[in-house]
Amino acid sequence: MLKAKILFIGPNESGKTVLANFLSDTTENVGGEYRPTQGVRILEFESQNEGGNDKHTLEVELWDCSGDFKFESCWPALLRDNSGVVIVFNPDVPSHLKEIETWHSMFISSQGLQDSQCLLIAHHKPGSAAEEGWLPLASHLARLPLIHSNLEEEPEDVRQAFTRYLENVVNTLSESREQEEMSIIT
Question: Which of 12, 83, 104, 168 shows a CA-CA span of 20 to 30 A to 75?
Fold first, then answer.
């Protein structure tokens, strides 16, 4: 069974925990009172992926990381052995668009992850009037896959997009493992 460690990072109050709970089937409730994550929460679940002729189960560790910079000293430990990074932000908060550049620099650029191992989620909170569309992202962020998330209106679209992302991560991990094996053989 393949295993993937996925980091959910981004600014405070962007919806990381709500999305993590939903995607890991930890809860059906998408509302509730805001309680900031302290450090990190690790959610484990299995995902059935069908990659071409391959049908396999992926064991996912979803690391729901606090957006508070007071935990910055812990980040090197979070980065260890990660398979992918998801940056969650609220497109209704202008400062989030600038802040995700910092998150990208610290968690993606520094690790040399491929674009296929990364995902941006523009999370629209309940009652938001934001429209899904173009966002003024920096060029290095605009290259990354972007999905708009609205758990009140289109929850299954979000789940399907995340499953496609996990398939991309699995393909990248498999290719990397095959290259490593070939380098040992030759």
Answer: 168
**Cα dist. 121→1, 49, 186 in Å?**
27, 20, 41
Three state DSSP letters for 101-125:
HHHHHHHCHHHCCCHHHEEEEEECC
Over its length of 186 residues, how does the chain's per-residue pLDDT go in tens digits? Answer: 688 999 999 999 999 999 999 999 886 455 567 788 998 999 999 887 655 556 678 899 999 999 999 999 999 999 999 999 999 999 989 899 999 999 999 999 988 889 999 999 999 987 776 566 678 898 899 999 999 998 888 899 999 999 999 999 988 888 877 777 778 887
What is the secondary structure of 18-75 as a DSSP string? HHHHHHTTS-S----------SEEEEEEEEEEEETTEEEEEEEEEEEE---GGGGGGH
Q: Name the 3-class secondary structure at 137.
A: coil
Q: pTM of whole model > 0.90?
A: no
